[in-house]
TrEMBL record:
Residues 1-29 are annotated as: Disordered. It comes from Mollisia scopiformis (Conifer needle endophyte fungus). This is SprT-like domain-containing protein. The lineage of its organism: Eukaryota, Fungi, Dikarya, Ascomycota, Pezizomycotina.
Amino acid sequence: MAEMYDHTIHSRNTFHNGLPTPDSELENNKHRRPSLYATPVPHSNIAMLCHTPDELVQAIQQFTKQDDTVIPGLEAMQEHYSLAFQNQQNDHRCPAEDLDQLSFYFNIFDRLFFFSSLQNLCAIRLKSIEGHHAGQLDSHRSNWRTEVPPTHACLITISDLTTTKPPLPYQKRMKKYLGTLLHEMLHAYFEVYGCMCTEVCTWRYNTLVGIHGSSWQDAALAIENATCRLVGERIDLGRVDSLAMNWIAAKSMPVEGTLDLASWGMTYAEVRTAYDYYVELYHK
């Protein structure tokens, strides 16, 4: 059973220079939402004033379906990924916990799945995380914003697995790190570009993106499917466990058949198994 992912939803207002942005200023800048961050949000093909998470999901879905031949350096990326998981006895290999290597994969994933929209926006660290969390995403919009470097919009924390008992081999640690990295990058994407300029937009964000809401699941599925083609194997973003944790947080389990889990490539039994696992884990 994979570790769960920890995310808390916080209400957000639009700020500029640390102060709430007046409605009049928003009205005068409809074409571009002011950046919330010290680091400017890069220009990209994302509509900066998307008012629904579905528009952000569609951007990922469309981008990940593009012809592989238009992706620069794809073959070199695939070769590097393949070599990283060969020759288990190679003592000269870069450690799985090397931050430069994780940053390298961040840049690869950003190009392959997020059209370079997260470039220079996320700091990465490995750290022991309380509980059974695999990763965590903090931003200047969250209660833990003091943790985020002032030069970045978000901080991705990946749980250090070197103390796991029994110890995990290199390949398993690396795959868990990369799955967690991609999972948190998707949260960062919604956190940076998700619109909360009005109460309606805030409600949409919290409902559809939420901790791991339907929009997050749709985008995560598109990315997972694309990893098979672009990376060479499926990278697990922990979608089943994340949905199970949503049910636990809501203290309510939907009746079987009320959700179209098949559209996310899941079964009710899979999510129920994960749900029961975490319920038992937290009551020990």
